[in-house]
């Protein structure tokens, strides 16, 4: 079975085509600048030169049609016809309390995704455009949706409720939802398989550290607590997001600087984090480079970033009454040896025996960066959210047949 995985943004669309017989990627790519005359489609097939096409793509339906044309192209494609696509899986950021697992799309599912627009106004409407674009181009192909929030629906009320009047939860569903759930789910299973231990026996702290970042306490295979909240703004310091802060700062900033709510929201989401503290970049690589060249603001940003990760790891170890595995994943977590070292140096109280040589090794495979016999295993686990989406889509479609 061939499954097309799509992640639609407001002006972009990423795709990967999987052959589920071998779980191999046949092709992948992205469409950027949707809505503009100079939209860019980049198409990649392993062993071939990348294809880059610039054209006018004004909406998502055309973007999906362009992708399908590329997948079936006589020279660049990997399929004989679009009929070789048996299913499509979509990443959806917010499933609210309505979706505790992945589901096949029907009219009721689409209606509920629309009802959740208020909780994810930047993401869910774009995902819906992706769903509708596939319907227009592949009307008879089943589609599935995989929610970033679904994995965290196992959290107890002690973890997901905020200490504010309950009317906000009853009427408006204000609560912790958590994100990156697809990634945390995938890497926790990979970690258990790597260690040869049942997931149900493990206490895992998963650190998804990219431009957006979150930590999740995974108790016996289920999300117990997670750092992101009702929105992805809460929790760790990130590339351009502030993470945790005193909520009274918001009205204070509005009054002192005569800002609007939208301006404050933009400041906290797009102009804070590494970007604000370093004054250089939201990219950890550039911050580390500046730090190693002696820039003190970059050093401060790096130290704050690492400290907050370490603080969350400590709190989650306490929440689960112990930890067996700490894992790092996503762009920064997988590739920044200096960050992993700085975080792990402050966790020796857990019995963690860090191995600098293992930490410096680069690999695309899951690996340990602690010495044999360490009381806590620290792993680097490459994430693959698209594969998990493909697997869930395959399971749902096969189960329906």
Automatic annotation (TrEMBL):
Cofactor info, note text:
Mg(2+). Can also accept Mn(2+).
Q: Where are the transmembrane segments?
A: none
Q: Which SUPFAM superfamilies match?
A: Actin-like ATPase domain
Name the Enzyme Commission number(s) assigned to this protein: 2.7.2.1
Binding residues annotated for Mg(2+), in chain numbering: 7, 385
This chain belongs to the protein called: Acetate kinase
Q: Which is an annotated Pfam family here?
A: Acetate_kinase
Q: Does the keyword Magnesium apply?
A: yes
First-listed, main subcellular location of the protein, grouped into a coarse class: cytoplasm
Q: Which GO terms describe its biological process?
A: acetate metabolic process; acetyl-CoA biosynthetic process
Catalytic activity reads:
acetate + ATP = acetyl phosphate + ADP
Protein role: Catalyzes the formation of acetyl phosphate from acetate and ATP. Can also catalyze the reverse reaction.
